Amino acid sequence: MEISNKITVPLAIIIGFIILGFMLDGDNAPERVSTPTTSPSTTSNFILPSCASTDCDCGDFSTHAYAQWFHENYNPGDKHRLDGNDDGVACESLP
């Protein structure tokens, strides 16, 4: 009986993977959607500014795009006050 249990469990796992493979084959496969990440290494060439741990202001950023990237990814609740009119756009005066 001990030998049959050692064979039965792995066999059941293998059969389960085979069945799952058939279920996901062809038109029944779930649609794979690529979800963009906000990781700096995958979305831009920007690096986290040194002021991120203290207090950033618009003068710490060279472009609007850089400030906006920081605002969207590392500035929850606009704690650095980069969006003066609360419209979701940071440092609008930057190029």
What key attributes describe this structure?
mainly alpha, 95 residues, single chain
Could you walk me through the main structural features you see in this protein, from its secondary elements to its overall organization?
The protein is mostly helical. It has 3 helices and no strands. The chain has helices at residues 2-23, 40-43, 64-74. The model is unreliable at 29-42 (pLDDT under 50).
Query: Number of DSSP strands?
Result: 0
Estimate nothing, just give the exact number of structural domains. Answer: 1
Query: Unreliable runs, pLDDT <50, ≥5 residues?
Result: 29-42
- What is the averaged pLDDT score? 76
Number of helical elements: 3
Q: Profile the largest sheet.
A: none
Distance between the termini: 76 Å
Strand content: under 5%
What would the principal axes of the Cα set say about the shape? rod-shaped
Element-by-element helix/strand order? HHH
- Rg from C-alpha positions? 25 Å
**Helix coverage percent:** 25-40%
Q: Which structural category fits the helices and strands?
A: mainly alpha
State the gist of this model.
The chain has helices at residues 2-23, 40-43, 64-74. The chain is mostly helical and 95 residues long. The termini are far apart.
Helix and strand layout, with pairings?
Blueprint: H1 2-23, H2 40-43, H3 64-74
